[in-house]
Amino acid sequence: MTTAKGPGRPRDQAVEQKVVDATFDLLNENGFAGLSIEAIAVRAGVSKAAIYRRWDSKDELLVDAMASVIETVEIGETEDIRNDLVAALRSMQLFITDTRAGEVFPWLVGEIAARSEVGLRYGAVISRRRELLFGLVERAVQRGDLRADLDVQTALDMLSGAMILRKITGVGFPDNGPENLVDTLLEGWVGGRTRSGSR
Fold first, then answer.
1. Residue 190 contacts by C-beta under 8 Å, 6 or more apart in sequence?
2. Is residue 61 part of a domain?
3. Among 108, 135, 174, 199, which has the minimal tally of Cβ within 10 Å of its Cβ?
4. Closest Cα partner for 67 from 4, 138, 132, 135?
5. Residue 36 sits in which domain range?
6. Same domain, 27 and 104
7. 30-40 pLDDT, tens per residue?
8. Which of 9-13, 26-30, 162-166 has the lowest mean pLDDT?
9. Where does the pLDDT of residue 182 fall: very low under 50, low under 70, confident under 90, or very high at 90 and above?
10. CATH number of the domain enclosing 41
């Protein structure tokens, strides 16, 4: 986990994990307004001082906790754009559906839309992952794997937007969801290719 505090006494990863778990528990139970450093300390069984040595505020704590999870969303590059996008979406799917952070993700989407302090901070975290995806798609365009006139920003909206919409509406994710989404989008992004990738 990456915190904003500088060098000092060695960090205890077990303490940090207890604090993060307590934060997600309380957020789900009471919402952000009911979240406090004192309540987190009690639930985690640590002192408030132990928390403040690592984070300056509950906003910083929550965003850092979310960031530590979203950074596990893998965005690799093999120069096979279909496989790379499917792998990225499958990793994103696991983050949204199978992590503690994913449980509060719809609330954070609302905070981003409201331009709240915590929303702005988390928006910056998401932007870093988007930049990685942007590079992945843009290089595929440069290689000639995708159409030269592809609007990469709009393409990314299509990818991530579909996943986010399914989460906040509670529609759910079929096992083959990433493959179906990527194949559907590539029909327009590639131009002249079939779903199987052949010309």
1. 145, 146, 147, 197
2. no
3. 199
4. 4
5. 13-54
6. no
7. 888 888 999 99
8. 9-13
9. very high
10. 1.10.10.60
Tokens representing 8 are 């000092």
Look-up of token digits 């950074």: 71
Number of domains, the chain:
2
The answer to the question of residue 63 being in a domain is: no
Q: What is the pTM of this model?
A: 0.76
In a domain, 4, yes or no: no
The token pair at 180 is 């179906």
Is residue 158 within 8 A of residue 150, CB to CB? The reply is no
- Is 100 in contact with 21 (CB distance < 8 Å)? yes
> For the segment 116-166, what is each residue's pLDDT rounded down to a tens digit?
888 888 888 888 889 999 999 999 999 999 999 999 999 999 998 888 888
Residue 166 domain-assigned? yes
Q: Among all chains, which residue has been given the structure tokens 């690592």?
A: 54
User: Can you read off the two tokens belonging to residue 108?
Assistant: 């954070």
